[in-house]
Amino acid sequence: MSIxxxxxxxxxxxxxxxxxxxLAVVTGLGSPSYDVMAAGDHKLNxxxxxxxxxxxxxxxxxxxxxxxxxxLVVTGDGEQMMGVGALAxxxxxxxxxxxxxxxxxxxxxxxxMQPSHAGQGVELARVAAACGFPHSQVVTEMDDVPxxxxxxxxxxxxxxxxxxxxxxxxxxxxxxxxxxxxxNRFREALGFAPN
Amino acid sequence: xxxxxxVNWQQDVFDVLKAAGVKHIVxxxxxxxxxxxxxxxxxxxxxxxxxxxxxxxxxxLAGAWLGGERGALLMQSSGVGxxxxxxALPACARFPLLMxxxxxxxxxxxxxxxxxxxxxxxxxxxxMGVMTWRADRPEQVRPLLEGAATxxxxxxxxxxxxxxxxxxxxxxxxx
Lengths: 195, 175
What we know:
The complex is a heterodimer of chains A (195) and B (175).
Chain A: H1 9-16, E1 24-27, H2 31-38, E2 45-47, H3 55-65, E3 71-76, H4 77-82, H5 85-93, E4 98-104, E5 107-108, E6 114-115, H6 124-131, E7 135-139, H7 145-154, E8 159-164, H8 179-189
Chain B: H1 9-19, E1 22-27, H2 34-42, E2 47-50, H3 55-66, E3 70-76, H4 77-83, H5 88-93, E4 97-102, H6 115-127, E5 131-135, H7 138-155, E6 158-163, H8 165-168
Parallel strand pairs in B: 1-2, 1-3, 3-4, 4-6, 5-6
Helix pairs in contact in B: 1-2, 1-7, 4-6
């Protein structure tokens, strides 16, 4: 049983978001939001600050409404586990333009590094496979991250990848906390005016 | 019931959502929503999404709105309890949220285990900043839901229409 892994979460996320093009990103609350922010703030980032367990469902709604655009959810293993049923919902819908990256350090990193379910043996990539995701994988080496980035951009099918990262908290890069602002900024970038 | 003159409120639920430009109907099933769910599933312009738990719908509809589209969440009153923490999302980001909630534990309830959540449904929604309206008669459904849709989508507000058990009718337990 492996608790997390040895990858640098910031290096992984920076590579996944490199030359992102049309990509829209939804982040789960806590460290994944900081990782995406550290890679560079962007109008097409939607950072969640609450509603734990909702990152993947926000991604599902967005991917369904924007089928021609790649949509990436970047979240943590604890956040995804709280919304584990959503993997079944998403598997039924199967949007080809949606990818879910679970940054798995095997711990609740935001609350004092308590061991998480993933850290004690629950592999979310296997949960996704059992739900019927057409592709799921476990990434343990940095060499595999560029191919993951290419998979996101290709919009070639729904997938979930758990990426085994080190259990550490890099310096926080805080995204904007004004939910209305990031919502309207996101929609404006897609051509939708605020009410 | 006089079926010739009765208002078909179940059809009205779907018709109002459709007319409001709803492109996503996300739901945990309830018998009271069966007509709207069936019509939504048959409508090629509407994405019908069955959920494992109701709060998934709040995230989903926030995502759809980010992507420029409207939706509605159908559920039973017990599901409101599942939504509480996630209602922070529309509260903080002012996402439109249109919920249609069929009531249990409300009137003539045979299963008293439904009563605690049924009795708490409307206060719980209000505590989390959701505006609510109750329909207890068939002719109330259309105007209340139209009004809720207006306030949700034009005012970036969370709105719920509760469909009471006096409207839905008693559940038949012994057949």
